[in-house]
Structures are given as C-alpha cells and as structure tokens.
Give the backbone structure.
Amino acid sequence: MMSNFTLRTTFYSLSLALAFCNQGFGLFLGITVDLSPHQWIFSIILASVCFLTWIWSSVLLAYNNRPTSTHALTSARAHFYSFLPLVPIFFAVGIMILSQIHFNCHTKEFSDGEADGWCGAGATAGSLSIIQSIVATLAIWSILRSVSRSHTGLKTNIAAGDSNDTKVVALASQA
C-alpha cells in the first residue's frame, strides 16, 4: 500500500500537470476556435481556473511535507478546502467545453477544412477538465486518509500522520 505522503504528492502533482496542460488547451481554444458562439468564453474561464489551480497546487505541494511546521498552509484544512471547490468547478467547465464541440466537429457545415483539429482540441480540453475533477476528488480522499487517525481531524498538520513512513521521516530530518 502506498504511503499517505506518496498518494498526496501524486494527486497534487497530477492536478498541477493537468491544470498546466489544460490551460494551454483553454488558451488555444479561446484564441483560435471561432466556430462556436460560446467556446471563447468557456475557454477563457478554463484557462483562468487552470492558471489559479496550477499556481495554488504548486504552493500546496511545497507545504505538503512539513510535519513539524505550524504554518497555516500545512494544516489539512487548508489543503482540503483548496481542493474541494475544484471538483464541481472543473466538472462544470468540462461540461461547458464539451457542450460546444458539436460546432467544431460538424464537418458538413461550418468547416474551414480543419474541423478535425478544432474538434480534437475541444474534446481534449473538456475531457481533461473532467479528469481534473476526478483527480481533485482523489486528492481530497488522500487528504482525508492522511488525517483519518488524528483526533483533531482537519485541524492537524497534513504531514503529521506520515511520521510512521520512514521515507517522510528521512526527508523531514534533512530539512
């Protein structure tokens, strides 16, 4: 079984990578695709949310392994409530993006000869958004798993429950 630290780091890193990639798709769709009436709005929303997500995920990842710290960003509550709103936000943005791909995938009308590229970009951005929602859910699960043995719940340090993991103890002693 993987340690709590490894699970959290994995899901935080996946969230960071997906947000970074999806920001690129959001910017690409917002700038280039003009076949859909609302795609540019949804793409700007996607790129903005992704930008904030990868910045904040980087910050949380930096505070993920500080078991002796009392900083506010090392509390499980900060991590939990940071990922909680990402679940419905990315799910909704994914649905918004996917609701517009029929304009780009309809090759009989509105086609500029490159409908396959526009269709694929929209489908990828929407799918990555829904996957981002799933990864945020898994990050929440890993946070709850990390604090499940603590009597203080989400008030505890996010890495305090990892003290039995020798890898985490070795890393913490080096810091």
Summary: The radius of gyration is 19 Å. The mean pLDDT is 86.
